[in-house]
Amino acid sequence: MRQGVSQTGLVIMSIINRYELMKTRLAFFPIVAGSLFAFVLSTAVLQAQPRQQPPQVTSPEVSTERKITFRIHASKAEAVQLSGSGDIPGTGFGQTSPLSKGTNGVWEITVGPIPPGAYRYNFNVDGVATIDPRNPKTSESNENTWSLVQVPGADWMDTKDVAHGAVAQVAYWSSSLKRFRRLHVYTPPGYESGDAKYPIFYLLHGAFDSDNSWSTVGRAGFILDNLIAAGKAKPMVVVMPHGHTGPFRFGSGGGSIFGEFEAEFAADIMPQMEKRYRVHTDRANRAMAGLSMGGAHTLNIGIPHLDKFAYLGVYSSGIFGISGGGPGGNAPQGPSFEEKQNSILDDAKLKDGLKLFWFATGKDDFLVETSRKTVEMFKSHKFDVIYKETDGAHTWDKWREYLNEFASKLFQ
Predict the structure, then answer these.
(1) Cα distance between residue 187 and residue 278, in whole Å
(2) Which fold has domain 61-151?
């Protein structure tokens, strides 16, 4: 560029030179030539002006101190808040944290330090919930999509330089529900290139989640990878079904929806997955566990079919209603779980084949009393139950820990 001449000036000079060249050709049409020159010159000037670029936004940004900075560009917004699914401080159910607006129209908030783990969040922009437009990582819950951020620092669930399995999204036809359904399946390292058979573990989610949840916010694939690489768990196939068969609301038909999934599991999910994947189908090589609603599913499926499962795990859950009311405050109608399953509960031979019956719940969990009463009931029927009461509440940081411990005890 010539000294003292701007980019816009150079463009104009170039247009003038071209015009002088064209003028002789348009000598007989002076009005046309003048109009053409004015149009081309005005267009060139506009194009030469620098365009207003939106500010570059990085979100989320995790620091070495495990603090998370969330940002969103919303220059015309009046208010922006950070919402979470319960694990990030100040962003639990019904709680939000306000972001501060910068002069460039970027809203920002820093939280933490945060314990290592995976966290769901979204933004509320003038009353409209939106995922983070700068973050491609997401996690599905029941009828919602969240943005997802991971804070490293926990060796047992971080992404490490070890052999990795694969998590697949699998479609199947449900003859029970007369429609296609989806689930997720983890296969261990080496599954694709080998011909060996593996034990199978059915891992169920909670009422506010979906079949996508365990492999995203739950870090299930990475937890299994790290356990297997360290020799702390056997390679296994893990099936993560979708436990909802329709819109779920506590106190509005939850019992019937529970029953629909449990019937579908026996008629469609278990038969199809055990035919589709190379797995052992005997009792000693089959396990099931679930959190919250999934823990109730585990008991409602596992106990009536106790001859098929050698390992059962219940996280933050139990028999809904056993402590005087269900999760929504509605006591179950009709015969109790104990009354319906009495013959199985007292079958000594079935108990002999149950290698692990494992419960864990946080002391601050709203279902802790449900867990306690459920464990008491099973112990009264001479079941060998392991019950852990940990710190914490009804949150994913606990359920990841429970999976890590429970999976290490399977198929040994």
Answers:
(1) 10
(2) Immunoglobulin-like (2.60.40)
The secondary structure of residue 255, as a DSSP letter, is: H
Could you count the other beta carbons within 10 Å of the beta carbon of residue 384? Answer: 12
Instruction: Look at the pTM and tell me if it is higher than 0.70.
Output: yes
Q: Is 380 exposed, middle or buried (0-12, 13-18, 19+ CB in 10 A)?
A: exposed
Which residues lie below 8 Å from residue 284, measured CB to CB, with a gap of 6+?
A: 310, 353, 355, 411
Chain centre to alpha carbon of residue 178: 26
Tens-digit pLDDT string for the chain (412 aa):
445 455 555 545 555 565 555 555 545 445 545 554 555 545 555 455 556 677 899 999 999 999 999 999 999 999 999 998 777 866 655 568 899 999 999 999 999 999 999 999 999 999 999 999 999 999 999 888 999 999 999 999 999 999 999 999 999 999 999 999 999 999 999 999 989 999 999 999 999 999 999 999 999 999 999 999 999 999 999 999 999 998 776 554 445 567 899 999 999 999 999 999 999 999 999 999 999 999 999 999 999 999 999 999 999 999 998 987 555 444 556 789 999 999 999 999 999 999 999 999 999 999 999 999 999 999 999 999 999 999 999 999 999 999 999 999 999 9
Find out whether 198 and 172 touch, Cβ atoms under 8 Å: no
Tokens (6 digits) for 97: 């944290």
Residues in the chain: 412
Task: Give me the residues paired with residue 149 across strands.
Answer: 119
Coil, helix or strand for 118? strand
CATH architecture of 166-407: 3-Layer(aba) Sandwich (3.40)
The closest alpha carbon to 185, from 172, 174, 194, belongs to: 172
Tally of CB atoms within 10 A around 134 = 16
Q: Report the interhelical angle of 396-407 vs 220-229 (nearest 10°).
A: 30
Q: Which distant-in-sequence residues (6+ apart) come within 8 Å of 319 by Cβ? A: 296, 299, 337, 338, 370, 373, 374, 377
* Position 224, amino acid: L
> What are the beta bridge partners of residue 320?
none
> Would you put residue 143 in left (φ > 0), alpha (ψ -120 to 50) or beta?
left
How many CB atoms are closer than 10 A to CB 161? Answer: 6
**Residues in a beta bridge with 121:** 84, 147
Task: Indicate the SS3 state at residue 248.
Answer: coil
75: its two tokens: 């220059």
